[in-house]
Amino acid sequence: MPRALLSAWDKTGLETFAAGLAELGWALVSSGKTSAFLEEHGLEVTRVEDVTGAPEMLGGRVKTLHPRIHGGILARRDSGDDVATLAEHEIEPFDLVCVNLYPFADAAARPDADERDVVEMIDVGGPAMLRAAAKNFAHVTAVSSADQYEAVLAELREHGEVSDETRRAFAREAFATSAAYDAAIADWFADDTFPDSLVLAFRKVADVPYGENPHQRAAYYQDADGRRHLLSRVTQLGGKELSYNNLADLEGARRVARELERPAAVIVKHANPCGVAIADTIDEAWERALAADPVSAFGCVAILNRPVGTALGARLAEHFIEVLLAPAYEDGAVESLRARKALRILRVDDERPEAPGELDYKRVLGGLLVQERDAALDDRSQMEVVCGEPDEGQWQDLLFAWRVCKHVSSNAIVIARDLQTVGIGAGQMSRVDAVRIAVEKAREHGHDLERAALASDAFFPFPDGPQIALDAGVTAIVQPGGSKRDPEVLAAVEAAGAAMVLTGRRHFRH
Known about the structure:
The protein is α/β, with parallel strands linked by helices. The protein contains 18 helices and 21 strands. The protein folds into three domains: 3-189, Methylglyoxal synthase-like domain (Rossmann fold), CATH 3.40.50.1380; 231-348, AICAR transformylase, duplication domain (Cytidine Deaminase, domain 2), CATH 3.40.140.20; 380-502, Cytidine Deaminase, domain 2, CATH 3.40.140.
């Protein structure tokens, strides 16, 4: 009779899985609360203490750490010595081990978590059994997730055994589960944001059709410890599956949208904002964001931070949008949007601020660059007016342009007027070229630059960049300052009768 060892914290679906095994003639062995749970569901279970001859001890810390358990898991069935050893010590082998681990990450993430309670959620016996089963995958099936239950039962019903391929695949998943679990524990113990050894664990959310280009394979993973991620609490209401580039642009758009509290529309193309606007209504915000640069917005990712009504849905459907995200949609809006078969319509149930302490990673040859995320929200009180006197309207435009500029690729220039971006220069090797592009973009789409505000993500090394903007009508500039030629830049702004504000902090985004 084949034997299964079952030990699960999360018992979702376990009674069905165990019943399926029992119906197929398997003997069930279990420990502690798992055995009690299965007995409550009318299943015949041999308790671990009856196998080991030793009771659970140390408040449940020691249950399965015993040769009669691990010998039964690790014994090689094609080894005469191992088989003889089992016989000598009257140890019965296990053919399947089903374990899911204590919820350490959930316990550690609680704001009021007590250290002693968190430590008790460090599973010792579970990972040991799971790793033992995975090591002996040639003979034992290691089941580490409820998602695997049905596949196991299906193979047993059809073939009477679990295939070699499935056992090998499950072994990999078991080791990945154990590794992610240990990574979460190591991260909790870390005293430094940048420890000597950095252990990362991510769990696949979905395969995506391809990467940045069709010849590149790709997938989307979430932080195994994270309580939320880019697509958590997001429901797709229509359209094609999300691509790699869709997800990258969606991340960029959501970062901008989190900076804006009033009704706002954010349009992103190739990871850069190309149109952002704030207005009294979300309908007006969309029209103004689109008007900022309608050419670049073709095939965009768009975010609206207010519900989409029927009329707005019809307007959105007139434009080629790759991905649209909003907190809610009227039925009529969804109907109009679904007429665009390729449009990915996303509803986000809960748009929260960025999680504190998140890190950014960039892969380099043979290594990883790691930094704190640039999540700082620069406040007006932290800035210094060095010339001119911005009025309230100019202040609003300066702060708006500065917040958008933080999310534009360096060198970055954002020109705004009446809480609408009217010109953006992104990713230029020269800052003066970024200014020139932003001004040309504004003129190309008929935007009035008189009394516009300009934001630069880093200081101006020369006065030539500001001069181009001043000559075009810009009357207020916000920038970090810190160049040795700051006096020359200041003189150019003063000569034009404009205002300039220094933030003292730059926002490069490479």
